[in-house]
């Protein structure tokens, strides 16, 4: 196991539980960490701390997995991996959405290796054990003996909740409460009729950076001016409608747009669910309606019941792994999954009305330009941040309360969640 030069996580020789000692050291570091500063180095590059993040955050909290419109019909499925846990999400009878560990109950083969598709049954590629879409084992060949009880070998379920078209999964045995999130997302997303969207474009990029650096970078626009010329054709640099940097001109624009949105009966209020979620609709730059190179719509067919393209962006944050923009003509959803201490998968999906016709209503190559450029710029920033943090010279630095309040909120959420969840994680999985 790598021990970084200035890590305080090195296990003492007498200890035979490296993750246990790492947990204690982590809690101690968190306890001493000054609020408003970036984290000590091991949080960004240590292999044991990465394991603790997986166990205490990604195997315990509700995570954004995908959109319900990605599995529109019975048999449609998507897969993802949360740490070492392959998961499958599948639509079954009567439109019910199920999530399972994507792991065969025979000898544990991953059941479904593909990212998405449509199946009649879930058939293991190894020895063809066959499962119903609700997880029941239907068939295990004839060689398992007459006393073999199929009922004992169903797929292991994973908690799943659909909220305004977003699919959230949780690997914990007792998932945290999600009722408020569901009611809030249902309310904000209702005008978009999210069941009737479709994915126009998908991009997956792997960043050579810790997942927290990817999220930290997203939580501020301090870097936007120097980094994102394409995005700034339409995006305001203010992160929230109550951003402390807001100018009188911006506040006046916000008030004017909010009156328009009230008349259309679409929600715009700033709502927070603890520090985990923030939803708010904010205007784009005056004269622009969509995050495109020219600020004009990328899709002629608007989403849901919307009759105006001028909806600003409904910005939806879900810690630890998603941020999203819903405009009038299209939406862009982002999912972050940790792959390793310094490796993170960022998946971006561009959504449009399901009846929008490619080549007629939208051009996917045009639609993706701004966020492809922005994602690549953000990838470089996160990777350079990681390179500097790996140095002997790195020490935690101060966040700006004016420009980086979103980062402070994220780090506060991370610290509280880790402190709450670390106490009862297993010592070391053997
Ligand atoms: O990978 C696949 O395409 C299928 C879908 C479900 C099981 N798996 C083998
Ligand atoms: Fe799945 Fe054998 S491991 S059928
Ligand atoms: Fe950025």
UniProtKB/TrEMBL annotation:
<dbReference type="Pfam" id="PF00848">
    <property type="entry name" value="Ring_hydroxyl_A"/>
</dbReference>
<dbReference type="GO" id="GO:0005506">
    <property type="term" value="F:iron ion binding"/>
</dbReference>
<keyword id="KW-0479">Metal-binding</keyword>
<keyword id="KW-0411">Iron-sulfur</keyword>
<feature type="domain" description="Rieske">
    <location>
        <begin position="62"/>
        <end position="169"/>
    </location>
</feature>
<dbReference type="InterPro" id="IPR015879">
    <property type="entry name" value="Ring_hydroxy_dOase_asu_C_dom"/>
</dbReference>
<keyword id="KW-0560">Oxidoreductase</keyword>
<keyword id="KW-0001">2Fe-2S</keyword>
<dbReference type="InterPro" id="IPR036922">
    <property type="entry name" value="Rieske_2Fe-2S_sf"/>
</dbReference>
<dbReference type="GO" id="GO:0016491">
    <property type="term" value="F:oxidoreductase activity"/>
</dbReference>
<feature type="region of interest" description="Disordered">
    <location>
        <begin position="1"/>
        <end position="20"/>
    </location>
</feature>
<dbReference type="InterPro" id="IPR001663">
    <property type="entry name" value="Rng_hydr_dOase-A"/>
</dbReference>
<protein>
    <submittedName>
        <fullName>Protein GbcA</fullName>
    </submittedName>
</protein>
<dbReference type="InterPro" id="IPR017941">
    <property type="entry name" value="Rieske_2Fe-2S"/>
</dbReference>
<dbReference type="Pfam" id="PF00355">
    <property type="entry name" value="Rieske"/>
</dbReference>
<keyword id="KW-0408">Iron</keyword>
<dbReference type="GO" id="GO:0051537">
    <property type="term" value="F:2 iron, 2 sulfur cluster binding"/>
</dbReference>
<feature type="compositionally biased region" description="Polar residues">
    <location>
        <begin position="1"/>
        <end position="15"/>
    </location>
</feature>
